[in-house]
Design brief:
The chain is an alpha/beta fold. It is globular.
Length: 245
């Protein structure tokens, strides 16, 4: 179903099963398609990844003291982009299968991958003695969270941020209105797909409660891709926010 401008919930277990099947499609020849999709268009996947990293990586203001928490890290796509001299990179994902792939792909002394859900991120960090982080990445995770889960996750994320921190969120948004795909069969993915594409104003309301009221400010925002060829959806577009405290 395609549901516009209405709040409905999606099934967390369906999403988890979806990514389990995505992990089975992992290929070293086109690794990022596992979470970026476009399985049959390796060139498009590579271009979108390159453009995203080129635009967003400098905004993270990475330095040797950077402790990066990558929430919903998948196979470690952003781990690949991290410089060697940061203090720590920690990727977390709810998919055991994706985390196993990430651990095989990225073997560095200052890099680790943990299994855990985004709305349990505080417990995941605490139980693994990771302390607090000063760089938070959320790249395309919000579409898979219902509103209550999203609110809970944001509250936990704020609590595990150091006093001075940078949060980078890259998210597909509804261009005109909220769009929910619920058990929607995708010809491109050849599977049922569940996702919530929120409009910009909706996301700002969540930011206001969790981050803007806790000392963060939106320092930059905008569309990720300028090229029409990379904006290949009619109703949604990749948008980013950088919040700093």
């Amino acid at each position: 179903m395609r549901i516009t401008d209405e709040i409905v919930t999606i099934d967390y277990n369906e999403t988890k099963n979806f990514f389990k099947k995505r992990a089975e499609k992992y290929s070293e020849d086109n690794p990022y398609s596992v979470t970026m999709y476009q399985d049959g268009n390796k060139e498009l996947v590579e271009k979108k990844n390159q453009k995203e990293v080129q635009k967003l990586l400098p905004l993270l203001k990475l330095n040797p003291e950077a402790k990066v928490l990558d929430i919903a890290c998948g196979i470690g796509r952003w781990a690949d982009a991290m410089p060697q001299d940061i203090e720590e990179y920690c990727g977390v994902d709810f998919s055991e299968e994706l985390i196993q792939i990430a651990r095989k792909r990225n073997i560095r002394d200052n890099c680790c991958f943990l299994e855990g859900a985004v709305d349990e991120i505080e417990n995941v960090v605490t139980q693994n003695n990771k302390g607090k982080f000063n760089r938070i990445l959320m790249m395309g995770i919000l579409v898979y969270l219902n509103d209550k889960e999203l609110e809970n996750a944001f509250a936990q994320i704020e609590r595990i941020c150091q006093e001075h921190a940078v949060i980078c969120i890259r998210e597909p948004i509804g261009i005109k209105e909220r769009l929910t795909l619920k058990d929607f069969f995708s010809d491109e993915l050849k599977d049922n797909y569940n996702a919530i594409y929120r409009a910009r104003q909706e996301l700002l309301q969540f930011f206001e409660t969790a981050f803007l009221g806790k000392g963060f400010k939106i320092s930059q925002e905008g569309f990720v891709f300028d090229e029409n060829a990379l904006n290949n959806r009619k109703e949604t577009a990749q948008y980013f926010y950088v919040l700093e405290r």
